[in-house]
Design a protein that fits this description.
GO terms for molecular function: hydrolase activity. This is Alpha/beta hydrolase. Keywords: Hydrolase. InterPro entries: AB_hydrolase_1 (IPR000073), AB_hydrolase_fold (IPR029058), Carboxylesterase_BioH (IPR050228). This protein is α/β, with parallel strands linked by helices. It has a domain of 199 residues: Alpha/Beta hydrolase fold, catalytic domain (Rossmann fold, 3-Layer(aba) Sandwich). It contains 9 helices and 8 strands. β1 and β2 form a beta hairpin. α1 packs across α9, α4 runs antiparallel to α7 and α5 runs antiparallel to α6. The protein is globular, with a radius of gyration of 18 Å. The relative contact order is 0.15.
């Protein structure tokens, strides 16, 4: 089924949106892209979600089909991305949220503002720590982005977080990443610079207000946002669960059919289960240097 497309004006930006309608659905879920990605990155995820829910996809103002509708003269902040997400939640009357990778920053910032409509959220391929593998990846990425080395950026992604992708997906990934506009690389560079230099807005204390159930999903082969690192969120969030996808890296359901089936089972099982009345006691809050995506 082809989606209904529209450009929605929200938080001073024009955002390309795609709405996949499910006639039998009573709930709507919005998906939040990772960095340098577009709505196309959720093609595998939409296949199983749209059988149960209305699904909303969107491109950030600087990316994909949104960038033609914006000036893109300077990078936008993750706080801006969170406000855009909150506006889309209201516009589409969204009940559930799912983010991938770097999209977890905007997602958690938005959830920390306790949007009344959101009942549950899934945060995938995300960790509260900058481990050695992620720091090495980000450090190399800054250099390629600063020099606008398109080919270098494409190879870096495929050789690191994308190393478990099938060869066809790697070719598509490289073609997409190496053909972006300069302002998209500048956007990514600005965010990584904040993260690496510990000037990040997203500290664990901002998560204290999240009261809805959250599911964190990570691949067991993902050394950049590792499952054991993601479990640290349990110290700071009232109601959270964790799922590990076997034989999967950072890109989860894009990597092979088995991971796709596991993701489908984990997400639908979580979203379609009534929330528990009991919640774990949160441990004392602390700060982290940055959120790794």
């Amino acid at each position: 089924m082809r989606p209904e497309t529209a450009v929605v004006h929200v938080h001073s930006h024009n955002v390309h949106t795609e709405f996949y309608s499910c006639p039998a659905a009573r709930k709507t879920i919005i998906l939040v892209n990772g960095s340098l990605a577009t709505t196309a990155s959720f093609a595998q995820t939409v296949k199983y979600l749209q059988q149960q829910f209305n699904v909303v996809l969107y491109d950030q103002p600087y990316a994909g089909q949104s960038k033609a509708h914006n000036l893109n003269q300077q990078p936008i902040s993750k706080e801006d991305e969170a406000e855009i997400l909150l506006g889309l939640i209201e516009h589409f009357r969204v009940n559930y949220l799912m983010s991938f990778s770097w999209g977890g920053v905007a997602a958690l910032l938005a959830l920390a503002q306790q949007p009344a409509r959101i009942e549950k959220a899934v945060i995938s391929s995300f960790s509260p720590l900058l481990n050695d593998a992620m720091l090495d990846y980000l450090g190399k990425g800054v250099g390629y982005l600063q020099s606008c080395d398109r080919d270098g950026i494409g190879h870096l992604v495929n050789d690191t977080i994308g190393k478990h992708l099938p060869s066809l997906f790697k070719r598509y990934n490289h073609r997409h990443i190496s053909s972006l506009d300069r302002h998209e690389y500048q956007q990514m560079h600005a965010h990584i610079h904040k993260v690496v230099n510990l000037d990040s807005h997203c500290q664990l204390d901002c998560l204290a207000g999240i009261e809805i159930p959250l599911l964190f999903v990570n691949g067991d082969r993902d050394e950049y946002t590792a499952p054991q690192d993601a479990r640290l969120f349990a110290r700071y969030i009232n109601d959270c669960q964790f799922a590990t996808i076997d034989n999967a890296g950072h890109f989860l359901d894009m990597e092979h059919k088995g991971a796709w089936l596991q993701m489908q089972h984990a997400l639908l099982g979580f979203l379609q289960t009534a929330p528990s009345r009991s919640r774990e006691q949160r441990q004392p809050l602390g700060e982290i240097p940055a959120m790794a995506m």
